[in-house]
């Protein structure tokens, strides 16, 4: 609900799609450094702090992860690179295609979402049940 | 100014939504993707309600035809399913399945000071950059 409402706010006030990978990508290029993009990312970065301030003392639900002793750094680099590269080629990620795209009933986004979910399912299956591991 | 403020608030709400729903927790995300294990489908409900809520806003925006400040609404115009979209989405899914983090939660993770996100986000920037080079146009034209 909150995620959808946030996307709606950006749409109704700014007329923009809340696609995180697209916003980050535009900031990589000097021509795309608009203030609203920086502000949106600043909001994402500040959100744990804002939540913490709101629930004073309750604490942020931090990721419950103990880092596996082996090569998690390498894995994070590989995963990050694939997410960035794939998101750039597909022109969108979970937020742009998965939330906004499906909400617009975009055929392209439906195809993208089904594909990255399928490949995510398959990757987790291979890592957890064939290789018998998993990062965290 | 209005736009920057709205974007800041939107980012904060978006991030809080990710945090409260558990989308920002890679373990929960991987449990959602683990069909063959102890599958946790709750994030599918989160996605559905996010889509439903923003659907309402898209319908509202389409009816108005412009933003609250009277500016045009800028939506993607591509409708074609091409090899780029297919290949990119499959590669994206592999990375997502490896770490359990997609771009939004990764940036919230940065804000949390969460170790894997600190490593993953610079690599993500690298991936975006290389993807741009791969497409043969290093510069995008922001809409």
Report on this structure.
The complex is a heterodimer of chains A (136) and B (143). Chain A is an all-alpha fold. Chain A is built from six helices and no strands. In chain A, 70% of the residues lie in helices and 0% in strands. In chain A, α2 (20-28) crosses α3 and α5 packs across α6. Chain A is globular and about 45 Å long. Chain A starts with a helix and ends in a 6-residue tail after the last helix. The model of chain A has no long low-confidence stretch (mean pLDDT 84). Chain B contains six helices and no strands. Chain B has helices at residues 2-21, 26-33, 42-64, 83-99, 103-112, 115-134. In chain B, α5 (103-112) runs antiparallel to α6. Chain B is globular. Classes of the chains: A mainly alpha (136), B mainly alpha (143). Chains A and B meet through α1, α2, α3, α4 and α5 of A and α1, α2, α3, α4 and α5 of B.
**Tally of individual helices of chain A:** 6
Total E-strand runs of chain A = 0
Counted beta strands of chain B: 0
Q: Per DSSP, what share of the residues of chain A sits in E-state strands of 2 or more residues?
A: under 5%
Low-confidence stretches of chain B: none
Question: How helical, in percent, are the residues of chain A?
Answer: 55-70%
Mean pLDDT of chain A: 84
- Determine the number of helices of chain B (DSSP H or I, runs of at least 4 residues): 6
């Amino acid at each position: 609900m909150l995620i959808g409402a946030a996307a709606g706010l950006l749409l109704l006030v700014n007329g923009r799609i809340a696609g995180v990978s697209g916003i980050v990508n535009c900031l990589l290029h000097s021509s795309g450094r608009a203030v609203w993009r920086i502000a949106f990312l600043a909001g994402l970065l500040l959100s744990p702090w804002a939540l913490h301030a709101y629930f004073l003392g309750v604490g942020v639900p931090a990721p419950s992860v103990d880092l596996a002793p082996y090569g998690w750094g390498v894995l994070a680099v590989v995963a990050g690179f694939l997410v960035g590269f794939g998101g750039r080629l597909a022109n969108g990620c979970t937020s742009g295609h998965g939330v906004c795209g499906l909400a617009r009933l975009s055929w392209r986004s439906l195809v993208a979402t089904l594909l990255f979910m399928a490949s995510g399912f398959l990757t987790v299956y291979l890592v957890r049940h064939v290789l018998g591991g998993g990062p965290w | 100014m209005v736009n920057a403020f709205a974007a800041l608030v939107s980012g904060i709400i978006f991030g809080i939504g990710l945090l409260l729903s558990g989308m920002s927790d890679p373990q929960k995300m991987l449990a959602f993707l683990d069909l063959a294990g102890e599958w946790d489908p709750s994030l599918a409900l989160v996605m559905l309600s996010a889509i439903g809520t923003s659907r309402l806003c898209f319908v509202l925006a389409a009816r108005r035809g412009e933003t609250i400040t009277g500016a045009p609404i800028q939506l993607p115009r591509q409708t074609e399913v091409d090899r780029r979209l297919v290949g990119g989405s499959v590669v994206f899914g592999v990375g997502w399945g490896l770490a359990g983090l997609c771009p939004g939660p990764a940036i919230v993770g940065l804000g949390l000071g969460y170790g894997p996100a600190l490593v993953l986000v610079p690599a993500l920037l690298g991936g975006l950059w290389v993807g741009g080079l791969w497409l043969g146009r290093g510069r995008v034209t922001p809409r």
